[in-house]
User: Which sequence fits this backbone?
């Protein structure tokens, strides 16, 4: 396991305007999408630098099988736990870019639902202008849920926000986002698999999609972000209404997403260039 730490993968791509426009439409954002020469909105780099594995190299969940770049840690379920991002300079639409991914750390822990393994990936995205984005992505692996096992009670979200915006994503939006990110994880489109194998109540809204709208609403209020961190706390399923909330403080803003039942879905923090 330790010999995987430091392993590196490089993917090159062009920040083409069509994909930016397609995500703009998927998120139902106002106004025209950004064109060539404009700055790609923060966090939208996740629709680029995609790796297309053949079907024979996929695992049962639709993700690339473990044991190639990411080591097989003996735990079948994969979840995006959170991340920490620094935005150094704009990633301009139309430019050629390169993403270097490095396995930074691997750790095992015992959680409330059993053994967990955490893998931290460091992504560095650069263009001819220099380094644009540094991101540390935390991925957690865990066991399948035991049949009939009681669910852990979720943490309740704060209610002292300055502002909140309501969101809801149905199966079509989840399909479009999966297509744009080339994400084959079956929890986002295969309802029987999501419920029967991984134990969710329905199709799961992508963690990075929630992070995208969380940061997007904060930037609409405060301007471009220089740093953004987030941690997933509870899943949201298709058709479930949730809110993205923010509370301004001296260093930027505290951010969180709140489910319809008041549970904490995601928590985060952002700092802004104008702060």
Assistant:
């Amino acid at each position: 396991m330790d010999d995987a730490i430091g392993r590196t993968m490089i993917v090159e791509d062009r920040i083409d305007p069509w994909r930016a426009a397609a995500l703009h439409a998927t998120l139902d954002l106002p106004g025209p999408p950004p064109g060539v020469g404009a700055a790609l909105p923060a966090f939208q780099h996740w629709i680029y630098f995609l790796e297309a594995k053949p079907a024979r190299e996929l695992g049962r969940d639709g993700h690339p099988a473990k044991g190639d770049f990411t080591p097989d840690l003996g735990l079948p379920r994969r979840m995006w736990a959170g991340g920490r991002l620094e935005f150094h300079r704009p990633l301009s639409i139309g430019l050629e870019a390169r993403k270097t991914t490095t396995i930074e750390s691997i750790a095992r822990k015992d959680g409330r639902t059993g053994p967990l393994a955490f893998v931290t990936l460091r992504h560095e995205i650069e263009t001819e202008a220099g380094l644009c984005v540094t991101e540390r992505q935390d991925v957690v692996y865990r066991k399948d849920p035991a049949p009939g096992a009681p669910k852990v009670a979720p943490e309740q979200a704060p209610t002292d926000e300055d502002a909140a915006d309501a969101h809801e994503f149905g199966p079509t939006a989840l399909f479009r986002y999966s297509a744009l990110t080339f994400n084959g994880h079956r929890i986002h489109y295969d309802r029987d698999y999501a419920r029967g194998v991984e134990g969710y109540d329905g199709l799961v809204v992508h963690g990075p999609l929630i992070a995208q709208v969380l940061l997007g609403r904060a930037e609409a209020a405060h301007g471009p972000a220089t740093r953004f961190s987030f941690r997933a706390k509870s899943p949201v399923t298709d058709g479930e209404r949730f809110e993205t909330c923010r509370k301004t403080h001296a260093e930027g803003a505290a951010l969180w997403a709140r489910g319809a039942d008041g549970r904490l879905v995601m928590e985060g923090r952002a700092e802004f260039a104008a702060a």
Observations:
- Helices lie at 17-26, 171-181, 191-196, 207-222.
- The longest strand covers residues 96-111.
